[in-house]
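Technical appendix A lists one of the benchmark inputs used to test multi-chain prediction within the project. The record comprises two sequence entries:
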Amino acid sequence: MLKLKLLIVDDEPGMRRGASRSLRNFQFQMKDFKDIINFEISECATGNGTLELLKNNQYDLLLLDYKLEDITGLDILEVIKEEKYNLVTIMMTAFASLEVAVSATKNGAYDFIAKPFTPNELRSVIRKASSNIVVRRKAKLLEEEKRQVRFQFLSVLSHELKAPLNAIEGYLRIMDKKIAGNDISNYEKMLHRSLDRIGGMRKLIFDLLDLTRIESGQKVREIKEINIVEAAENSIETNSAIAKNNNIAVNLHAEKSILINGDMSELEIMFNNLISNAVKYNKINGQINIDISRIDDSSILIKVADSGIGMTANEKSRLFREFVRFKNEKTRNIEGSGLGLSILKKLISLYDGKINVESEFDIGTTFIITLKNLPSV
Amino acid sequence: MNDKVKQYQGKTALLVDDDIDILEQTQLYLETFGFDVFTGISQAEGEQLIENEKYDIAVFDLMMENADSGFILSYKSKRKYPEVPIIIATAVTNETGLHFDVGTDEMRSWIKADVIMDKGIRMEQLLSQIEILLG
């Protein structure tokens, strides 16, 4: 229930009473929001009295008579503009004078209503003005929310970039002062680590761009009927070199063609994410088994199972958070931005899909994903 | 720097940091000062080392598995070895808005670190702090 504060200003008591009665129990629901709007009503008979009330109270709406005993409605509009009171004014004009109505709106009135008017006409004008207020409020809240999210994200991001910078700087200082002695080979490892960290920063920045582009909808999507098995095969090919390095076998179990409405590059990114993780966190001579099957007319099941190092329950609970990477004896030398699974999750949500993880420490991990066919374009 | 006498020869340091490069660099500094160094790459490993080893000084990274991993290790270390000084290294500082409430006695006795250093720790700075803590 959203209560808006309304001030009715007219020198005729009958007018005030009538307007009050029309709006006292009036409530309505806006089309796009759940909120139900109703009103808390105050009244005033004079212009100066109104100015006093406006100074000491917060109103949302002002129903203002043009012709008052002491000063005019236009004078009040002038004060509202000067003092920057945040409210919406509806001017009541007698004699249906267009000239007055026009100058009122030019002076800051949101709308006008010509006397005499029916209760329904009044409610209609008030409803329109109220909707405007609510929409503006929602927009402001959204802006604030966005700002908070962006601030938090940037804070975490700057932390993530500071770490590699500190690491690289540390190595450079050690090299500068020759702290590791005079043997050059001691410094070779540091040089390579520095280059690795720089690569990591670059990947982080690219992944971040991907993530924000997906989130903001800026990434151009090419949706058509594609073979999801082909996306998997392309991705396996992409990762074949790193798989071969550790002699990891990648097995694909699927029919030759499973069609889905989607964007080929998105699906390839998804598989790349899954397969590169399955390789990186695997054991030497390990296995990766990929299963793709149709659940029903509109959904597809994907499983990517590895025989890798697995996760503890604690690690599993933190898995999809941004920048999270597990640091332990086994993962010491594994590189990554910590954004891969965030990106994966966002892409899956574009397909109205779900992702689950099963994992056993030191035994292996399985990612289970369901995707729904996107509606045809 | 290299011709300086290894003034802490015979002493041991416990070092825990989840960044492998910072871990190696800080280890190098400590060894240059003469320390034997135990290292851990996570809060979990740090806890194991506190449990199983004896050391004269500890250096803990603050944010690891948890945002306050360093404080947790500090608490556990002080509980076992009340006399061993602890340095906490953090990249966190003010901008993330991380607040540690030292309002109650319990909290004050909880945060047991002796000194907090900002990451990007230089060798000379580290030596100065250790000299203050260990003499």
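The first strand of chain A starts at residue 2 and ends at 9. Chain A has a mean pLDDT of 89. Comparable benchmark entries are summarised in Table A2.
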